[in-house]
Amino acid sequence: MAQVLRHLPSVVDSNVLVDAATRDDAAVYQLTPDRALVATVDFFTPIVDDAATWGAIAAANALSDVYAMGGRPLFALNLVGWPRESVPFDLLGEVLRGAAQVTGRAGCLMLGGHSIDDPEPKFGLAVIGEVHPDRMLTNATAHPGDRLVLTKALGTGILTTALKRDLVPESALEEAVESMTRLNDGAARAAIAAGVRCATDVTGFGLLGHLGNILVASAVGARIDVAKVPKLAGALELAARGSVPGGTKRNLESANAEWAPDITDAERILCVDAQTSGGLLLAVGPERLDALLAGLQAEGTPAAAVIGEVLPEADGLRLVRGGAPG
């Protein structure tokens, strides 16, 4: 990713509050002292067999970037690549129906979009939201001593790959589908109410990749307790059987981390598993932790797991079993 981002032109504009430099989840452009626009885009190929479910997951995934910045989605545009000669348009209608159900739950208007002929189906959204400039969540505001809190379990990449390889029936993905179609709006509300200012969502670069963006942007290190990382049912077992997405393998190869010797290969895979519509990873000061956890519980987030802590930059990224604060 760094090799791609370095080709982007540098931005010098006082209204640009967040651009690609910090590898945040979305761009933020200030309009007034108390209002800024949040802009993001995301799309991908099918990861489940049911068309409406794919559309719902893709929509939740795209909306998540706005929530990860502390924002509220306003409207979205569909992005469609479709093999019109081989896949009926009725299925595209199901994709759009699933997406519209999720954007409707988010109070986000669906205002149109663009489609092209494509040999492989692709779907996603460009989303515009808004945020108060003083209440943004970004990668660049973590501090040593902060606790790291994760709001969804890991393993969606492992499980959807197992489905593609016929290692599990689609019924085995019920928990994963429920997680992937769950909006991160409640997690964002709880974070803002607790005074959190540092967040990202965990998607294609896995837990360690997105945490790594926080560490670089904030000039800090971190310790993660693998025993406290929430996991979807069956994910570790399937990882041990070799159900590992290509993106997860690349994430593991590029992970700049120190692993304790008792961490299994399957646990390493889980910590870098390429997620779709994953949860928020929040860095919160210890004095605000109880308020955040209470807020997450009230919002009914899939998880509210304290998985580690932020360290000084010189400590790097460490994966341990035990020893991280609760």
Set down the secondary structure blueprint.
Layout: H1 2-5, E1 16-18, E2 27-32, E3 35-44, H2 51-68, E4 72-82, H3 89-105, E5 109-117, E6 122-131, E7 147-150, H4 156-164, H5 174-180, H6 185-193, E8 198-201, H7 206-218, E9 220-225, H8 235-240, H9 246-254, E10 258-259, H10 265-272, E11 280-284, H11 289-299, E12 305-312, E13 317-320
Parallel strand pairs: 4-5, 9-13, 10-13
Antiparallel strand pairs: 1-2, 2-3, 3-6, 4-6, 7-11, 7-12, 8-11, 9-12
Assigned CATH architecture of the largest domain = Alpha-Beta Complex
Give the uncertain stretches in residue-range form. Answer: none
Mass-distribution shape: globular
Going by CATH, what is the homologous superfamily of the largest domain? PurM-like C-terminal domain
CATH class of the largest domain: Alpha Beta
Here the CATH topology of the largest domain equals Phosphoribosyl-aminoimidazole Synthetase, Chain A, domain 2
Q: Alpha-carbon distance between the termini?
A: 33 Å
Q: Provide the helix percentage.
A: 25-40%
Number of strands: 13
Strand content: 25-35%
Task: Give the topology string: H per helix, E per strand.
Answer: HEEEHEHEEEHHHEHEHHEHEHEE
Number of domain modules: 2
Task: Describe the largest sheet.
Answer: 7 strands, mixed
Overall pLDDT confidence: 95
Radius of gyration: 19 Å
SSE class: alpha+beta
Provide a quick synopsis of the model.
The protein has 326 residues and is of the alpha+beta class. Helices cover 34% and strands 25% of the residues.
